[in-house]
Amino acid sequence: MKLTEGQLWTRLNDLLVGRGVEVGEDLPGAELVVSEEGREVFRAALGRHARRDDDPAVVWIRPLVASTTTSANLPAFDLTIVRRRALEITAAHAAGDGLDLELVSGQRARVQPARGVELAVLQDFDTWMTTLTTAQRAAVDALDHD
Fold first, then answer.
1. Distance between CA atoms of residues 119 and 15, nearest Å
2. CB within 8 A of 45, min separation 6: which ones?
3. Rounded distance, CA 42 to CA 8, Å?
């Protein structure tokens, strides 16, 4: 089913916060899988925040691609590595438990519930976010600079 801009935004946010996904005691979230010519070229957990651009075809996300370091025995992330990224979308479709996106680049992206390693990285990111001040968390969530 092809989605409108509003439906895309609602479904994306539902996936990012894990709304409607049961994974036991883990707090669910989303991962991004990008493919090109039918082959997976990228996979990463997604931070729990997204931002619409002035151009309605552009959505900003934060793929969590880097492994964490530790600070005071807690996970830590370097925002110069886990930078915001833009998805330039030409079409969006609801597909099972996920969201299929056609990108301007010709690649296809799927946002789906995070599992396995990606879910563990997301949980580490969630823990790291709790170590930030309110202002720092707001800046990370805003996705308006790196």
1. 12
2. 29, 30, 31, 32, 63, 64, 114, 118, 119, 121, 122, 125
3. 21
Q: Quick one: what percent of the chain has pLDDT higher than 90?
A: 68
Q: How far apart are CA 21 and CA 7, in angstroms?
A: 18
Rg (the chain; Cα; Å): 15
Residue with tokens 């025995």: 73
**Residue-level length of the chain:** 146
Q: Tell me whether residue 102 is exposed, middle or buried, using C-beta atoms within 10 angstroms of its C-beta: 0 to 12, 13 to 18, 19 or more.
A: middle
CB 14 within 8 A of CB 7: no
Residue 25 pLDDT greater than 70, yes or no = no
For the segment 115-129, the average pLDDT, to the nearest whole number, is: 92
Residue range 128-140: average pLDDT? 93
- pTM equals 0.90
Per domain, the residue ranges of the chain are 5-142
